[in-house]
Amino acid sequence: MNLWLIPILPFTGFLINGLFGRRMPKSLINVFAIGSVALAFIWVVKTLLGLGELETKYVEHVFTWIQSGPLQINVDFAVDRLTAVMLMVVTGVGTLIHIYAIGYMEHEDGYYRFFAYLNLFMFFMLILVLAQNYLLLFVGWEGVGLCSYLLIGYYFTEQYATNAGNKAFIVNRIGDFGFSLAMFLIFRQFGSLDFTKVFDSAKTMPTEATVGILTTICLLLLLGATGKSAQIPLYVWLPDAMAGPTPVSALIHAATMVTAGVYMTARSAALFTHAPIAMDTVAVIGLATAFFAATIGLAQTDIKKVFAYSTVSQLGYMFLGAGVGAFSAGIFHLMTHAFFKALLFLGAGAVIHGLHGEQDLRQMGGLFKHMRITALTLLCASFAIAGFPFTSGFFSKDAILVAAYERAPWMYWLGVLTAGMTAFYVFRAWFLAFTGKYRGHAHPHESPLVMTGPLMILALLSLGGGFINIPHWLEPMFPEKAENEMLAWLSAGVGIVGIAIAYLFYVVKPSLPESIANAFSGLYKLIYNKYFIDEVYDATVITPLLATSRTVLWKGVDAGVIDGTVNGVGKRSRGVGGILRLLQSGNIRSYAAWVVLGSVIVLLAIGFAGGRQ
Amino acid sequence: MNFLILSLIKAAIVAGVLLTTLAYLQWIERKVIGHIQLRVGPYRVGPHGLLQPLADVVKLITKEGIMPANVNRLFYLLAPFLAVSLALISISVLPFGPQITIGQVTTYMQLTDLSIGVLFVLAVSSVGVYAVALGGWASNNKYSLLGGLRSSAQMISYELPLALAVAAPLLLVNTLSFREIVEYQNGFWLGFIPRWNIFPQVLGFSVFLIAAFAETNRVPFDLPEAENELVAGFHTEYSSMSFAAFFMAEYANMVTVTAVATLLFLGGWKAPFPEPFSSFIPIAIFGFAGIIAVFHGMHPARRKDKYTLPAAGVVFLGLAAIFAGSLFVPMAQTILMALFWFCGKVLFLLFVFIWVRGTLPRFRYDQLMRFAWVVLFPLAMVNLLITALVVALESK
Amino acid sequence: MSGGVPMSWYLILSAILFGLGVAGFIYRRNIITVFMSIELMLNAVNLTFITFSYSLKQVDGHIFSFFVMVVAAAEAAVGLAIILTVFKNRETLMIDEVSSMKY
Amino acid sequence: MTALIFFIFAGIAVFCGISLVAQTHPIASALSLIGVMGSLAILYLQLGGEFIAAAQVIVYAGAIMVLFVFVIMLLNAGAEGTSLNVSQFAKYAGIVLLAAFLGLISFIIQATLPKTESVVFGAWDGGTAADVGRKLFTSYLLPFEVTSVLILIALVGAVVLARKEI
Q1: What domain range is A285 assigned to?
Q2: What is the mean pLDDT of chain A?
């Protein structure tokens, strides 16, 4: 089926744009960038059609990468139903966002660079999704991290952007550290990194033998996932990552890359299901993140920050789903989230584009009449994320919440509360931006078709995406959970209540939020400043770390030990060389004579030591 | 010891005939060039200048050998010696007739049959450069040096297309022995087209012939001795027998090259016509020539012709009679026919050499080099590749 | 004795030629002569290849010496080009006088 | 007969080798080297290597040495001076070392090789052009191709080096 073609196509685009893009006209860059991704999408569709029902996993061996003793790492690509969903989401949404970026990035410098990075990202993301072993997955995992770093720091002339890039990279390192350790343990335990082999042997192992090691592995994997998917405690990089261009926020930091952690957890479901403690941890972390980020989202004024925290919160939902064993619901939410969150970001990007770079909600308002398509599509996305009945969010979120209720009712109630908050802050943003009077100074205008087109397609998907029955499709891999109509309607009701409150606060009585904020000023400040988490990290981790590095590692180890050793070696070498250089007369004949002397000695040795027979 | 005696006899015959031929080749060349230029050529010494070569030899031997000042005596004398011996050495592996039996003795009409005969000739011709280069260098004369440098560059350059052109027919015949190469060209296509290599290898033959002109330093490639710029090139300073040696070497090289061309491309001693006709052709030619000579002797245009032409006519008629007589002695016929066709082809090619000299102007030096590398070399390469491809496809 | 020559003689001849090459390399001053001494050594080695090829009745030794020749040809082309350049820049062929890189 | 030919040409080879080292003029050295190569070609023939003998003459004597002679003539290289500016070590140790080298290697050759093995002309003729070609284009095809690339590189390198403006 030539699976290798799927990642290679964007890679070709990357090579062409990266190497020659500087000299190419924009239209040609567009052709290669969008063409390569669109071709990849078409190839995915063709491949999936060709593979049919995918009752079993389809594996394709490309080449053997590492062969050393028992360690054999192949570059194998595999497609099963989970991968199929991810492939469709990544290439489909990716294509739309690429198209959107043509319009959004039109006036930016380094146009070719942007698209080259974006194509490179697609390449690594597809590697990640198609990988058939942990190491190859890790290659994609690190590659998307690299591209994320490059794209966050896209405006590298701005200090905040480079800082945000660094932050994302460093925080991700902590997670990757956990992931690496998990891989070592997996190899030590199972003797392989291949998914099929690991999961098969994990299934057949006796429970009591595996509990400890598997829990450790799963917790370490979880650490990796929290880094990539911005969960507590490593979520801090994602809001800052909004420094990148908005299409990047949509593609990488909403739709695809940040869901890699969820994907990886679902991929490792066979391990997690054998480690109940790890499962509970996943669920608790997911729920806590969902709730926590939602509260922060209530008070943000930057439109992209609102959506960023909403992303963190929704990712928390996915982990909650995975943690309570409803992997299929998690993946389902991953897909619908990709639709509506990409739409939210792209809509926000359209708004920012229309306002010439303004991101503050307080400087907006009344934009509905200026940009109707954007407003309407954003409204669709907002309904979807709020879980309004029969939109995509309704199905996927409620599938998770129902599964959570099965696990523990308090999780359900907390989730429902979060859902209410989600509905509130999303609509708060919508009302602030599109209703009322315009408070800014720019001249708002609607975006071109190349931007609104993807918005409309995504709006359709956000509304109707819930009817794609992902849990049923994933049934062979992850057993479906029980359904409970009642609970679903309840959470939807809470969502509608949240919308209503937002309407009340920001349309009917715009003075109300002010008074409430004043009434609970302490709480408001806490939320507004994101619980001072960044400051806490600064004080507890970063400052001590910097101090230790400066005093011990730099002054002590580097200047003292390492430099001392190197200089000492150099001095000794010079001393020895001073003696040896007497041999180096610079006269080629004397060298030749030395060679003859050497051969005479060798001949003598042969003569004495056994030349005679 | 039979082998040694036999070899000595053959060597003596070949050397005698060859040296005479070389001397008379000079006469032929002067005659032909003369007639091309509407002159009569040598005419004084002997009838129609026939004794001219003899006179030349006597002159060259008796002249004083001049040694220029400040030359390296050894190299100065070594150069002409090398030239003539290398030129003559290749003749030893060239066959000029089939296997024959005279009385008890069975032998080849060839000094020695080497299984790598072609390589041997190439090797010897590649060493031949030294004679020219050394002669030019040792003369301690700037014209000679320039001539020597030019000729070494030219001979190295043209050796490539030459070797490549030789390689193509070798691919067809799959052997390096001249004898087997000739045997391969036995017979006829469609009963009347001789199976000579020249027909599949027209391009190869052309390249070979052109490169051969350059290898022997003949017009239009006689840059090493371009008299209008370099006086006489590498042999400016040579006189007497040394000069004669260079001169002889040039003609010997011509004979070698034409003989190799004959063997490789023109079927060697094989007759160009099927058997019953080919036997009568020499009789017809010689007879006709004799009759014409006798006839002109009867009606002389010049006074001397009254004696010379009938004499020549008698000689030709005698030759015709010998060929006619040989029809009844099978072995004699084999020998004579082989000799006739081989010498005929070689003489024809030699005539072409002289003809070209009488026709074409000299190349300029840069044109000469460009022609070798830009035209001849690629052509030879293409020819070789196509031949190799065809051979590979046919062997499937 | 009339039948043949001991194989070792060929090898000793090769050693002698090799030694002569080394001597030329050490004692001669002209770059071209030094270069030719190297060629002499290569030739000596070729002789051993051919001799052992005869002794083992295998053609591989011939192949090796063939490769040696080809490499020698390449080496001569480049080496002589270098010598030409050196002469153009320094007007000398004496190996001792080309020593600006010394020390 | 074999012994006679061997002695004649081995003698020529050694004589020419000595001449190569001893002559002061490069042209003389070059001609001596050609002499060595020619006599070695005869010895190759004796050892059954008819192809390699021809190649020796064509490639070595006919092409490589022509280049040498050509360059010597082009540069008009004269005889070198008599002053031997040899390094002290090489000057004194060289001769002794060479003598030791030759003695040792002869000793080892004599001691190691079986005494009975002798070379007879025509006893083995596995070195024909056909044999060499077959081996060259089957077992040694890759080295052969690599050599062709090497030649190409050398060609380009020589052209670049010998250009006028460098």
Answers
A1: 280-527
A2: 86
